[in-house]
Structure formats: C-alpha cells, structure tokens
Amino acid sequence: MPQGFIPGSRAPLGIDALLTATALSALLLAFSIFSVRVRRNYSRHRNLQRAISVLLLISLVFFEVSVHMHGWRAQAQGAALSDWLPPLLTIHIVIAMIAASAWITTLTLALCRFPKPPAPAEHSITHKKLALLTTVLIYLTASSGLLFYLLAFVF
C-alpha cells in the first residue's frame, strides 16, 4: 500500500487521508454549530453539514478501497500495544456505525422537515436533540479513530 503523508507515522495513504478528513470535518462541524447557535446562520449550517457529509463519504470510500486492496496490518506490525488494536478497532467501528446512522437520520430529517431557506421550525426541538447525540457520537468516533491511529501507526 502506498505510504501515507503524515510525518512520524507508518500509516498507509488511505488511513492518513481518512484521518485528515476526519480532523477537518471535526473542525468544520464545530464551525457549523457555531454558525447556527451563535450567528443564527441557518443556510451556512445546512451547507456545511452537506459539505462535511460529502467529504467524509468520499474519504471513507477511498479508505475502504485502499484498505481492502492493500490492508493495514503490515504497517501496524511492531506497534507497542498491538494487543489493544483488535478490541479498540471493534469499539471504533461500532461507534462509527452508530454515529453514521445518527448523522444520516439527523441530516435526512432536517432536509425534509425544515423550510427552504432554512429557518427555525416545528422540527427544531427534535433536531437539537438528535444533533447533540450525533455530535457526541461523531466526536467519539474521531477520538477512538485517532487513538487507534496513534497506537497502530505511531507508537
């Protein structure tokens, strides 16, 4: 598998790309939440959510193709805590699947139930609750992915 681009890491390219996209998405998510909660810019929030979704989908497809073609275990050999990798990866995947389901649900309901252009509506209370859950799950996914990355490819 092609070598990644993050200095000090043994990670393959697909994993470095996904890590970078995840970090960028986490920052954009924070800015999106700021835009809607503080600035009341509902259109920016909607557009950022769409952009983040597309960015993560493209990154995830690239990651899956590269991992299925080339694997990752060879680059993780010699990791200091290699016994921790399988259970950590399982936990990360479970959280990521729940987060993806929550994100798809939150985004789909928002696109269907908010007016165009976006503005507060009857769905707002439900959306805030779903969005909080989704945001927590997304940051748990990013955190567990980063921990896996560090343990597998850095230490």
Radius of gyration: 17 Å
Total helix count? Answer: 5
Shape descriptor: elongated
The unreliable regions are: none
Distance between the termini: 20 Å
- Whole-number tally of structural domains: 1
Report on this model:
The chain is built from five helices and no strands. The protein is mainly α. It has helices at about 15-35, 40-70, 75, 85-115, 125-155. It has one domain. The longest helix has about 30 residues, at about 125-155.
Topology, please?
Blueprint (H helix, E strand, L loop, with lengths): L12 H25 L4 H29 L2 H4 L8 H29 L10 H31 L1
Helix pairs in contact: 1-2, 1-5, 4-5
Concise description?
The chain contains five helices and no strands.
Short descriptors:
single chain, about 160 residues, mainly alpha, about 75% helix
